[in-house]
Amino acid sequence: MQLAHQAAILNSNITADSIEANEYPTLANKYAVRGVPKTVINDKIEFVGSLPELEFVQQLLAAVQPPA
Amino acid sequence: MLVESLKRELKQKLGTEMEGEVTLLLFTSELASETCSDTRLMLRDVAELSDKINLRVQNFVLDKEEVERYRIDKIPAIAILGEEDKDYGIRFYGLPGGYEFGSLVAAIIQVSQGKTHFTEEAQQKLETIDTPLHIQVFVTPT
């Protein structure tokens, strides 16, 4: 979670939510959360587990790229 | 809610690392779950550990203006605000227990310092993002 928080601090266009999956079953179900941490970016890109910093940043960039 | 040994350790850490003031803005409801009252007790304990941490509690049902301003759609919700209520877009939904408690403390310190620990390359790439980006991270306490 810390990378997402830090990204939000760095860039005001970025917001970062940490969601306790067991407490919001409907939401966890919507995003098919089966493993944690599960990250969902702009409802477009998702991955499970923690990524190294640069890979994490690449995922964020991929989520804002206009469709080719 | 926090054990004494953890309180002592945290008090020292926050005292050393915090710079500016931080406000924990908690959205809750009297009628809501046990989780809401547990979260409130936990944050009260955290706020007592540093005079740079303020706790403000809002009612999810009654304080509509604040709920809208901070775009809160579920409770318990915590927004971590910097000086003069600067909103960095950081939210915790649910009781931040277990592993998440460490994330909460880290977020408080980072907002207080207003700086991040990215490498220069990562920082430059992140700064190019000029449209809204919403990151949701699903976690469990263990």
Descriptive notes:
The complex is a heterodimer of chains A (68) and B (142). With 68 residues, chain A is α+β, with helices and mostly antiparallel strands. Chain A has a single domain, classed as Glutaredoxin, CATH 3.40.30.10. Chain A contains three helices and three strands. Chain A has helices at residues 2-10, 25-30, 53-64, and strands spanning 14-20, 38-41, 45-48. A two-stranded antiparallel sheet of chain A has the order 2-3. In chain A, a hairpin with a 3-residue loop joins strand 2 and strand 3. The longest helix of chain A is centred in the last third of the chain and has 12 residues, at 53-64. Chain A is globular and about 30 Å long. The N and C termini of chain A lie far apart (30 Å). The mean pLDDT of chain A is 94. With 142 residues, chain B is an alpha+beta fold. Chain B has a single domain, classed as Glutaredoxin (3-Layer(aba) Sandwich), CATH 3.40.30. Chain B has helices at 4-17, 34-47, 64-69, 99-113, 120-127, and strands spanning 22-28, 53-59, 77-81, 87-93, 133-139. In chain B, strands 2-1-3-4 form a four-stranded mixed beta sheet. The radius of gyration of chain B is 16 Å and the shape is globular. The interface between A and B is large, with 43 and 44 residues.
Query: Spatial order of the strands in the main sheet of chain A?
Result: 2-3
Largest interface, Cβ cutoff 8 Å: A-B, 43 and 44 residues
Low-pLDDT regions of chain B: none
- Largest beta-sheet details of chain B: 4 strands, mixed
SSE order of chain B, one letter for each helix or strand? HEHEHEEHHE
CATH-level-2 architecture of chain A: 3-Layer(aba) Sandwich
